[in-house]
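Worked example 2:
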Amino acid sequence: MVQIGYTLSSEEFRPTELVEQAVKAEQAGFPFAGISDHYHPWMDSQGQAPLVWTTLGGIAARTSSLRVMTGVTAPIIRYHPTIVAQAAATVADMMPGRFTLGVGTGEMLNEHINGDQWPPISIRQEMLAEAIDIIRELWQGGYTTIQGNYYEVQNARLYTLPETLPGIYVAASGAESGTLAGRMGDGLVSTSPDKQTVDAFNAAGGRSKPKIGQLTACWAKDENEAAETALKYWGYTALGSQLSQELALPKYFQESTEKLVTTDMIKKTVVCGPDPAKYHEQIQQYIDAGFDHVYIHQIGPDQDGYIDFARQEILPHYG
């Protein structure tokens, strides 16, 4: 039976708000949540981008059962893998058995800030695979020295390690990245119900591993109101996934959305409004594609309204 999770949107809320949302999600019965890891929001209208690792410390202190995954961290340019290894180990120590490190190849939006070159996806995938190996090596304890193709580690040792190491789930979209995720990851993360991605993940060794999909929605009492909210805060999603990896600044996403995206386009890409059947239909698409976890991203400020809706209309139908 599929499990339904909650999305903590670091692009839209301050860290204390995200902590409170995690508490409310746990109280409502959500078994897990994903939290985004961004340096910039996607659009200026979203308005926030706190450091996820600080926020996770607050969530660890205020929750007791909610499982939390970074959705997702890019340990390839902005972060050196050694820092991600330490950060994830610390959070896992604060949340015993409740933390998962979700990783991916990132977006130029966040990764350009240090002035490093933004490489093509084939290179980013190689960097991600090497980064995962480094993180796992550091989690074994002891001094680590590595001279890799992309990263150098000199006599690094993590002194604070959790009793239970977190899993590393790899984000993927399409067969090539699905194969990488199946080979390198303890689980799969994806943002669309793409069976091709799941099949590639399974074929590369992921058949028995968790598969987590993110569904984007905007609950409101009226469908048109929900579509307007989704357009304001998350309109870029209608532009396509490839473009989202290549634009450098939130204002570029903002400008592109204002010029190109309409509410009718949003209604085709985002579940909008109060009808539970639409949510169940979309969740079923993920189930049919082979996912066993779906975490729903509620767009916009009305998180309390959505949590109450989900508690009554969504969660009782799933394990």
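The domain at 3-317 is CATH 3.20.20.30 (TIM Barrel). The mean pLDDT is 97.
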